[in-house]
Write a structure and sequence with these properties.
The chain is globular. It has one domain: Rieske Iron-sulfur Protein (3-layer Sandwich). The N and C termini lie close together (7 Å). The protein contains no helices and ten strands. The chain is an all-beta fold. The strands form two sheets. Strands 1-10-9-4-3-2 form a six-stranded antiparallel β-sheet, with no helix packed on it. Strands 5-6-7-8 form a four-stranded antiparallel β-sheet, with no helix packed on it. A hairpin with a 2-residue loop joins strand 9 and strand 10.
Length: 104
């Protein structure tokens, strides 16, 4: 079972932005929206492009390659061509630190 791992500092990811990090040898994108911090697999399920090369619009991450969109709150696809959701990981903030627990 995976434990929480320190992944970033709160100040590194202002609201409305995101950052790609590596947690236990997996690429993760941490997103900060008005709804809080979220962590998702940093790989578009449509073609493998790092989702962190794309953009953020409110609560949607948009893939830079083909425009697939994902809801950062749950990883669900909100626009094709992707049909498979992104893996979502648990996040907690303690003080100035962001911790991520990889999904099993």
């Amino acid at each position: 079972m995976s434990d929480f791992v320190k992944a970033a500092k709160v100040a590194e990811i202002p609201e409305g932005s995101f950052k790609s990090v590596e947690v236990d040898f997996e690429r993760i994108v941490i997103v900060h929206t008005a709804d809080g911090f979220f962590a998702l697999a940093d790989e578009c399920t449509h073609d493998g492009e790092p989702i962190s090369t794309g953009s953020l619009k409110k609560n949607e991450l948009i893939c830079s390659r083909h425009g697939a969109r994902f809801d950062v709150r749950n990883g669900e696809v909100t626009r094709a061509p992707a049909i498979v959701p992104l893996d979502k990981h648990e996040v907690k903030v303690e003080g100035d630190d962001i911790f991520v627990k990889l999904a099993e």
